[in-house]
From TrEMBL:
This is Cobalt transport protein CbiM. GO terms for biological process: cobalamin biosynthetic process. Belongs to the CbiM family. It holds the Pfam family CbiM. Its main location: membrane. The keyword ATP-binding does not apply. GO terms for molecular function: cobalt ion transmembrane transporter activity. The chain crosses the membrane at residues 40-61, 73-90, 110-131, 138-157, 169-196, 208-234. It is a multi-pass membrane protein. The gene is cbiM. Keywords: Cell membrane, Cobalamin biosynthesis, Cobalt, Cobalt transport, Ion transport, Membrane, Signal, Transmembrane, Transmembrane helix, Transport.
Length: 255
């Protein structure tokens, strides 16, 4: 019954988010780099950088589903959480928009590699169904949100757990910094593609980063708090799956 209720809740939230996203006014710039915005050389470069992580992520997902098939619903939850949060665009300055990423939760639960697949699938659906991002820029968007963000989040989580053992603090910080690192990498991608005439890449990075900073920092804090709330909900309603997940993560660390 708990599983059926969880699945129904996820589907309801996904449907509601899809409705709001399709019917919201479209902004000129967003955290996902739009279709055709990057020069073709840079678009290809980020695809080349992203693909190896995607392949490794597929191998990791196959291993997880074979060894612990009972965790499939948790994988679905991680993907749904990423979809819901990253589809919510918040108006920012100069006609731009910011959004949470939702990748920190999955990175904490499964590590960064599976999120390279789940996150890129989310971005593909958003590009096709919601016109968030694009297909030519999918490599760049996936690297920033589905690769860099989860790697940072996972590293921060492991570091805080090793240093303090405070899990809730580790989850909050991991989710917040996974969000912030995504926007930092996106700003860097844009700066490399469009260096300023005066000041070059550094000046351009400061410009693009400043566009999102006012809304992205409080969004990152909010995402960290929400991720902790979701973790508390999982502990209350999916304790068996969390126990399997944590045993698996300990085994992976020892191997």
């Amino acid at each position: 019954m708990k599983r059926k209720g969880a699945i129904s809740s996820v589907l309801l939230v996904l449907g509601f988010t899809l409705y709001l996203s399709v019917n919201e006014p479209q902004t000129a710039y967003a955290m996902h780099i739009m279709e055709g915005f990057l020069p073709w050389g840079w678009a290809l470069f980020w695809w080349i950088v992203f693909v190896p992580f995607f392949v490794l992520g597929l191998r990791s997902l196959i291993k997880i589903t074979k060894e612990t098939p009972e965790l499939k619903i948790m994988l679905g939850l991680a993907g749904a959480f990423t979809f819901v949060l990253s589809a919510l665009k918040i108006p920012s300055v100069t006609g731009s928009s910011s959004h949470p990423t939702g990748t920190g939760l999955g990175a904490v639960m499964f590590g960064p590699l599976p999120m390279s697949v789940l996150g890129s699938i989310v971005l593909l659906f958003q590009a096709v169904l919601l016109a968030h991002g694009g297909l030519t820029t999918l490599g760049a968007n996936a690297f920033s949100m589905a690769v860099a963000g989860p790697i940072v989040g996972y590293a921060v989580y492991k570091g805080i757990m090793k240093g303090t053992g405070k899990q809730k603090l580790a989850i909050f910080t991991a989710a917040a910094l996974a969000d912030l690192s995504t926007y930092v990498i996106t700003s860097l991608q844009l700066a490399l593609a469009f260096p300023a005439e005066s000041g070059g890449v550094i000046a351009s990075f400061a410009k693009f980063g400043g566009i999102f900073a006012l809304t992205q920092i409080p969004l990152a804090i909010s995402e960290g708090l929400l991720t902790v709330l979701i973790w508390n909900w999982l502990q209350a309603n999916s304790s068996d799956e969390l126990s399997v997940l944590q045993r698996r993560m300990k085994g992976a660390n020892l191997s």
